């Protein structure tokens, strides 16, 4: 059996997720036993026509992004979104909270007509996404897990529980008991609670659990001493896209 | 039962004495305001005066994550993890936590006895310590008064100059034997402390309440504040549910089967193949959690499975209190079935 052809593509992003994969130094040679990387702009020059698995990083935020993601989807058997920008619009989607013309003018000034822009969207807003790997940057253990599952012919397991679960399994002191506030209670786990484990509150970079009750979360935040405004801002940092979808136009 | 006086200045040498008898685990400070059971390296870092530990000593018998077996696809074989029975001395355990262990002993020895738990649990010595209840402890209401020593081999009761040590079991006596640092003079126990928190009904009256609480409005009300993070499950000393997952290594030829703690408040807990979920709403899950503590197992054993440690309440970021839930159920039960007006029974009308 020939090895599956795998490609990596980047859209609107910092390319940190791609770099994160290159940081899998201890595993890269083992991974290459199982796959052929046929396209990976950050690491090589080659191009290919068809892909068994395409990994997409970054959000969709320009008309040319839309044409390109359609083209990649057409040529990919399986398409996987990597990281916060590709899976939920990421911090790019904060721009969706402002009128698009205002955003263009602020960023590009007088040259704004040279740069057509759209509200930032997750890849799934445009094409079918088969699997997602969350996080900012994407979680490398989860990336490996999804890759291994696909290679073994299994359905990858998607975590849908709160970061609190992983904190409790690690017996971390709750950041709320240190006088901080944290989005752990409604943010999707799978990161191993890496931020709270090192004293940094969770910002919800992996998106929210499927039954996230934002109002109850805002109550938790405000009852621990932050203002309603600040509570909303915290929730929007990585999760503006969902919010902008339900905003009046 | 022999009693000894251990003065404060001799505590460290007593812990050193224990360390010669086996591995010693005791509470240590953890983070800013918390405590945690760890293996004792330095006797001077042990804290015997604490409110509660983040996790109970359950974690030593049912670890948060463990490898059950490793398998090879190449050879179609598997090998179970081996667990060595080793002597473990748990120092500074509060009595509700040892009751939690006794409850788990029941759970893991019924039906198909669970080898991994029972092997880890074997040869454990429990040295209890008295404690001062804070605003969350309510053990008395679930049948565990302050100086209940069931389950302990040795008990340390605080007094003005240190601790009164009681050797309760033969095992406990053999641990104490040979220590020459006890004081001749017995000290009087410290001032009597009381529980600050309690259930409205004593535990033996709760079955009648839970018999009538399936449709209580409390579940919906509580679920409005709950975000379903699962903390209450995971910190509970008598919760024992787990999930099992196979993980392949990168060779794709071999892997391990692992289990980790799970919780009935979580989304995937009651989800099954095909996408159905037996308990879709947080209200149903909250009811299930509380019924697991006060009804399902209680109907069989006669004992509440809640041990009144207060962890689920102390660590809930949404401020949901199991005592308030049970007390509201009592109020609603009285109002609906005992024909007492709401005001008289103290039911908080705003929460109905």
Protein architecture, described:
The complex is a heterodimer of chains A (249) and B (352). Chain A is an alpha/beta fold and 249 residues long. In chain A, 37% of the residues lie in helices and 11% in strands. The longest helix of chain A has 12 residues, at 63-74. Chain B has 352 residues and is of the alpha/beta class. Chain B has helices at 11-19, 95-109, 115-121, 170-176, 206-210, 218-225, 231-234, 282-294, 296-301, 311-314, 322-337, 342-345, and strands at 2-7, 23-30, 34-39, 65-72, 77-80, 88-93, 124-129, 154-159, 162-167, 242-248, 254-261. In chain B, the strands form 2 sheets. Chain B has a 7-stranded mixed β-sheet with strand order 1-9-8-7-6-2-3. Chain B has a 4-stranded antiparallel β-sheet with strand order 5-4-11-10, with no helix packed on it. In chain B, helix 6 packs across helix 8 (282-294). Chain B is globular. Mean pLDDT of chain B is 94; it is low at 345-352. Chains A and B meet through helix 2, helix 6, helix 7 and helix 9 of A and strand 10 of B.
Rg estimate of chain B, integer Å = 22 Å
How far the N terminus sits from the C terminus of chain B, by CA atoms, comes to 51 Å
Number of helical regions of chain B: 12
CATH homology superfamily of the largest domain in chain A: NADH:ubiquinone oxidoreductase-like, 20kDa subunit
For the report, how would you describe the main beta sheet of chain B? Answer: 7 strands, mixed
Taken as a percent bin, the fraction of beta residues of chain A is 5-15%
Average pLDDT of chain B works out at 94
Overall body shape of chain B: globular
Q: What count of domains describes the coordinates of chain A?
A: 2
Structural class of chain A: alpha/beta
Quickly name the level 1 CATH class of the largest domain in chain A: Alpha Beta
Identify low-pLDDT runs of chain B: 345-352
Number of strands of chain A: 5
Number of strands of chain B: 11
| Major interchain interface with per-chain residue totals | A-B, 42 and 38 residues
């Amino acid at each position: 059996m020939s090895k599956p052809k795998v490609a990596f593509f980047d859209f609107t992003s910092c390319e940190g997720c791609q770099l994160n994969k290159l940081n899998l130094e201890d595993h890269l040679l083992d991974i290459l036993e199982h796959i052929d990387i046929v396209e990976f702009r950050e690491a090589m020059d080659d191009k290919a026509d068809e892909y068994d698995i395409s990994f997409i990083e970054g959000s969709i935020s320009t008309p040319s992004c839309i044409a390109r993601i359609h083209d990649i989807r057409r040529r990919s058997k399986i398409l996987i979104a990597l990281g916060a920008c590709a899976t939920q619009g990421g911090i790019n989607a904060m721009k969706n909270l402002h009128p698009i013309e205002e955003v263009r003018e602020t960023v590009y000034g007088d040259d704004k007509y040279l740069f057509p822009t759209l509200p930032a969207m997750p890849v799934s807003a445009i094409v079918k996404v088969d699997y997602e790997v969350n996080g900012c940057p994407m979680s490398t253990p989860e990336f490996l897990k999804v890759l291994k599952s696909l290679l073994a012919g299994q359905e990858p397991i998607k975590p849908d529980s709160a970061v609190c679960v992983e904190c409790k399994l690690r017996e971390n002191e709750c950041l709320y008991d240190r006088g901080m506030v944290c989005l752990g209670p409604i943010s999707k786990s799978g990161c191993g609670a890496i931020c709270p484990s090192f004293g940094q509150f969770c910002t919800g970079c992996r998106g929210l659990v499927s039954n996230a009750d934002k109002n109850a979360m805002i109550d938790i935040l405000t009852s621990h001493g932050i203002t309603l405004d600040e509570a909303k801002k915290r929730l929007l940092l990585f999760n503006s896209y969902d919010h902008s979808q339900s905003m009046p136009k | 039962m022999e009693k000894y006086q251990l003065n404060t200045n001799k505590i460290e040498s007593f812990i050193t004495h224990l360390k010669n008898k086996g591995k010693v685990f005791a509470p240590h400070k953890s983070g800013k305001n918390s405590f945690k059971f760890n293996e004792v390296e330095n006797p001077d870092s042990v804290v015997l005066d604490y409110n509660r530990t983040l996790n109970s000593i359950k974690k030593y018998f049912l670890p948060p994550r463990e490898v059950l077996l490793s398998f090879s696809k190449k050879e179609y074989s598997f090998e179970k993890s081996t667990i060595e029975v080793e002597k473990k001395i748990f120092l500074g355990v509060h009595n509700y936590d040892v009751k939690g262990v006794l409850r788990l002993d029941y759970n893991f020895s019924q039906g198909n006895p669970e080898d991994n738990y029972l092997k880890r649990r074997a040869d454990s010595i429990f040295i209890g310590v008295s404690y001062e209840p804070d605003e969350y402890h309510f053990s008395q209401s679930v049948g565990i008064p302050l100086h209940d020593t069931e389950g302990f081999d040795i008990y340390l009761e605080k007094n003005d100059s240190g601790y009164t040590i009681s050797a309760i079991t033969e095992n406990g006596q053999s641990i104490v034997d040979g220590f020459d640092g006890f004081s001749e003079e017995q000290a009087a126990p410290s001032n009597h402390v009381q529980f600050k928190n309690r259930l409205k009904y004593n535990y033996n009256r709760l079955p009648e309440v839970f018999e009538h609480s399936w449709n209580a409005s409390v579940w919906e009300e509580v679920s409005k504040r709950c975000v379903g993070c699962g903390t209450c499950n995971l910190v509970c000393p008598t919760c024992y549910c787990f999930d099992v997952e196979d993980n392949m290594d990168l060779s794709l030829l071999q892997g391990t089967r692992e289990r980790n703690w799970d919780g009935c408040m979580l989304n995937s807990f009651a989800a099954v193949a095909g996408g159905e979920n037996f308990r879709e709403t947080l209200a149903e899950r909250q009811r299930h959690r509380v019924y697991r503590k006060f009804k399902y197992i209680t109907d069989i054993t006669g004992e509440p499975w809640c041990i009144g440690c207060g962890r689920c309440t102390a660590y809930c970021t949404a401020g949901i209190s199991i005592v308030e839930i049970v007390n509201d159920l009592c109020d609603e039960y009285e109002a609906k079935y005992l024909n007492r007006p709401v005001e008289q029974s103290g039911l908080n009308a705003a929460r109905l």
